[in-house]
Known about the structure:
Helix content of chain B: over 70%
Largest sheet of chain B: 2 strands, antiparallel
Strand content of chain A: under 5%
CATH topology of chain B: Arp2/3 complex 21 kDa subunit ARPC3
Order of helices and strands of chain A: HEHH
Helix content of chain A: 55-70%
Number of domains of chain B: 1
Oligomer: heterodimer
Number of strands of chain A: 1
Largest interface: A-B, 64 and 73 residues
Structural class of chain B: mainly alpha
Radius of gyration of chain B: 18 Å
Number of domains of chain A: 2
Amino acid sequence: MSRKTWTTIGLIAALVLIFGISFVVGGLHTNPDERFAGTDSVATATIQEANPDYQPWFEPFFQPESGEVESGLFALQAALGGSVLGFAIGGLWGRRRGERAGSAAGTAPEPAT
Amino acid sequence: MHIAEGFLPVAHCVAWYAVSTPFVIHGARKVIQEAKAHPESRLLLAAAGAFTFVLSSIKLPSVTGSSSHPTGTGLGAVLFRPPVMAFLSTIVLVFQALLLAHGGITTLGANVFSMGVAGPLVGYWFWRISNKLSWHPNVGVFLALAFADLSTYLVTSVQLGLAFPDPESGLAGSVAKFAGVFAISQVPLAIAEGILGVLVFRLLTDVAKPELERLGILRPARKEAVA
């Protein structure tokens, strides 16, 4: 395998390692009920703790009532982003291939749109 | 970094809206300008926006036992300059505020400032410094993504500290308190985001070399010499 492939594998391994360590270390010293709470909600709790009188003066128009619905909507966001990212990279890949085919055939590459 | 709906006093909400709005308008203009002047960049623009869309939807576990979002804004800031990310981040944050009750419409100005304005700017500075030192583009991308992420959360800490100063230790104490919630959790995530950014950037250098050269990200002749 080329050096490039090894670098890619190394980078992915580093990612897996970071989250593996985070997961284990983060799980060790926290109590199971509040394990991996979102920092956003921790910040909200911190505000309420220090300022018990503070009333949020605005409520969200729409609130996913259950955790399941909420994760579904987050998954939807990831899916939308992932599709567009895949489409864009696929489009660029096709553009390169078209250029190569064009120059191999001795014609000028088609102007990219 | 999503300050929850209603969790900033009215005056702060208005002030952050006032600060962020010009950046977002300028960014929207830049996006349109770029798409019109260089239609071949449209796919890359879409990729930068989509990268932020994906990353900010994921909550990742951290060593502190809490979980947090990456921001993904550094990549677009490197590719298309920071103003573009002010606009793209606004789209992400509006989506999350309306559909996910994550962040909020009242706090949108503040959240846009941390994620869409401050983070991309800091990330872009690191990219420029790395370039000045003629470090490999991959190193620059790593630094840009990691520091865009980290600085976003530091700015959020300052925003919350300003809004809720500690009665005893004052502004500094409350900023430190919120940074304690965010910053340490964010360090491993920022590193991970930097690595992921390098993976995506390597992929882009494979499939979008001419576009990246036109944007001045890769220098065709000097790149071999540096590498």
